[in-house]
Design a protein that fits this description.
The chain has 258 residues and is α+β, with helices and mostly antiparallel strands. It contains 7 helices and 8 strands. It has an 8-stranded antiparallel β-barrel with strand order 1-3-2-8-5-7-6-4. Strand 6 and strand 7 form a beta hairpin. Helix 6 crosses helix 7 (210-237). It is elongated and about 60 Å long.
């Protein structure tokens, strides 16, 4: 019961966000705070989960809810809802708007919809990430799902405590190298915040699919040369844990204003 209530509350937070995601921005802020809800979906229940999430999208669309969110699925059946929020102070305000949203949708309709998620996942969590556009290279690259660059190459670096500033400097050098070599494709950098392990740096590179990424990666390595390899080795030397995952943005499970 507690788990079900937590999920219901979080989805209400989605609908009461104060900042909408935009894919047509020409200038991005230096940093963006992101609220993340991660469901660890049971593989054989993934079809039921996706069906429930699509029904949820239809429900909020029919109710003309004015908020937006994106969904990414990784190769280990983690589905993460991504919501851009304004600031830490704004988070506290979300909890006061739940009744308004439920009344707009209809309490019975909302509860029936939430029941569709029962049994679909064995755990879930909420956390915050910070998108560092100032450290990213062409951060707008791949943002628009209509462009078809919905594959995501995800590299997670968990830095040795006390080495965070050193990693920041390495990222700046990495970005300068991309700029100097005029690489066509971009990457985004995220740092962990509330609810994540300490020292988390996430590098995200979009592509059409995994094969397309491998082709682009080979091309970039030839252009960037030994300088990139040296920077990577320096990053690894201050990293205590590394993870890689393949991800796929799911526009069909996301909600955005038309």
């Amino acid at each position: 019961m507690k788990t079900k209530f937590a999920v219901l509350l979080f989805l209400l937070l989605i609908l009461t966000s104060f900042s909408s995601l935009s894919f047509a921005q020409t200038e991005l802020p230096n940093t963006q705070l992101l609220l993340m809800h991660e469901d660890n979906v049971i593989p054989y229940m993934s079809s039921k989960y996706e069906s429930a999430l699509k029904d949820f999208v239809k429900m909020v669309s029919d109710a003309k809810i004015e908020r937006m969110y994106n969904v990414i699925q990784t190769d280990i059946f983690k589905y993460t809802v991504i919501i851009q929020v304004t600031d830490f102070d704004g988070l506290a305000k979300y909890f006061g708007m739940s009744d308004e949203v439920v009344n707009k949708i209809g309490k019975d309709k909302f509860e029936k919809q939430m029941a569709k998620f029962d049994g679909c996942y064995d755990s879930h969590r909420n956390y915050l990430m910070i998108l560092r556009n100032d450290l990213s290279y062409k951060p707008e690259y791949g943002l628009n799902p209509d462009e078809g660059l919905n594959y995501r190459h995800l590299d997670y670096f968990y830095v040795v405590p006390g080495k965070e500033d050193e990693m920041l400097e390495l990222i700046k050098e990495y970005k300068k190298l991309y700029e100097a070599k005029n690489i066509e494709e971009g990457f985004r950098v995220y740092t962990g915040s509330v609810g994540t392990e300490l020292g988390l740096f996430l590098f995200v590179q979009p592509a059409k699919n995994r094969i397309d990424f491998a082709t682009l990666s080979d091309k970039q390595e030839k252009i960037l040369g030994e300088e990139e390899q040296k920077l990577f080795e320096k990053a690894v030397s201050i990293t205590q844990k590394f993870e890689h995952h393949d991800g796929q943005m799911r526009p069909d499970l996301s909600y955005r204003k038309k």
